[in-house]
UniProtKB/TrEMBL annotation:
Pfam families: ABC_tran, BCA_ABC_TP_C. The lineage of its organism: Bacteria, Pseudomonadati, Pseudomonadota, Betaproteobacteria, Burkholderiales. Keywords: ATP-binding, Cell membrane, Membrane, Nucleotide-binding, Transport. GO terms for molecular function: ATP binding. InterPro entries: AAA+_ATPase, ABC_AA/LPS_Transport, ABC_transporter-like_ATP-bd, BCA_ABC_TP_C, P-loop_NTPase. It comes from Piscinibacter gummiphilus. This is ABC transporter ATP-binding protein.
Length: 250
């Protein structure tokens, strides 16, 4: 039987007269490849901010493994395993991919106070970094500064960093936004190869990625749950098509 990991219960967020999240109840199952889509202003970012704890709901609840986490601060949710990537680059430009990953891996192993020691000084860090660098196709650029990396590689490093912290639930926020056409496939492939045990909620505009990646799709429109189902039903739903065609998403 499927197991629900992350769930929202009648979640509602109101800013004055605007309700970007309006009575939204969704269930994200263990190991899910679940996409959250919707036209501009649908409330996707607000929902992610509610899930990560950056924004407090006006009403409603959020639960992780059946436990209410609505009142937990963002860092407490990270500790429980809800990790997100960002639409906007959050990397350290002066570090290399290897150094960036070593920081996160060291923290994960509880040895962050020694992160500045030569990498080889703890073989567990070096080993884990080597696996991540290969998995995320960063081994050829591992010693270059982040500031000189191609945009697609930076996005891969963001996802690698999130995975390095061993999330239970990964919120992938528009991983191909702004990535040039020629670099997208590499990101598609890498995301498709993420470990099956990690539960993934993907927030994305790119329908190619959504329909290749997801098994379940939730469509938000004007803050409200508009449609939900498997990829086949959502991709052929005339109401969903109409919403996207109206926004010029084709
Ligand atoms: N802090 C805020 N104060 C007032 N209104 C807000 C706030 N945050 C979001 N909104 C409004 O809520 C609505 C939903 O915004 P949100 O950014 O969540 O949508 P989105 O689906 O992520 O859009 P996009 O695809 O353009 O990123 C918008 O009308 C937005 O202006």
């Amino acid at each position: 039987m499927s197991q629900v990991v992350l769930e929202t219960h009648n979640l509602l967020k109101r800013y004055g007269g605007i309700t970007p999240t309006n009575d939204v109840s969704i269930k994200v199952e263990k190991g899910a490849r679940h996409a959250l889509i919707g036209p501009n202003g649908a409330g996707k970012t607000t929902l992610v901010n509610l899930l990560t704890g950056v924004v407090e709901p006006t009403s409603g609840r959020i639960s992780l493994d059946g436990q209410d986490i609505t009142q937990l601060a963002p860092h407490q949710r990270v500790r429980r395993g809800i990790v997100r990537t960002f639409q906007i680059n959050q990397l350290w430009n002066e570090l290399t991919p290897l150094q960036s990953l070593a920081l996160t891996v060291s923290a994960q192993l509880g040895i962050s106070h020694t992160w500045w020691k030569p990498l080889g000084s703890d073989p567990r860090v070096a080993e884990r970094c080597a696996v991540l660098l290969k998995q995320f196709r960063l081994d050829d650029v591992m010693d270059q500064k982040v500031s000189v990396l191609a945009y697609g590689k930076r996005r891969l490093l963001e996802i690698a960093t999130a995975i390095a912290s061993e999330p239970r639930v990964l919120l992938l926020d528009e991983p191909v936004a702004g990535v040039p056409e020629g670099e997208r496939q590499e990101i598609f492939d890498t995301i498709n190869a993420l470990p099956p045990e990690v539960t993934i909620l993907l927030i994305e505009h790119d329908m190619d990625l959504v329909f290749n990646f997801a098994r379940t799709v939730t469509v938000l429109v004007n803050g409200t749950l508009f449609a939900e189902g498997d990829v086949a039903s959502i991709s052929t739903d005339p109401r969903v098509k109409a919403v996207y065609l109206g926004e010029g998403h084709g």
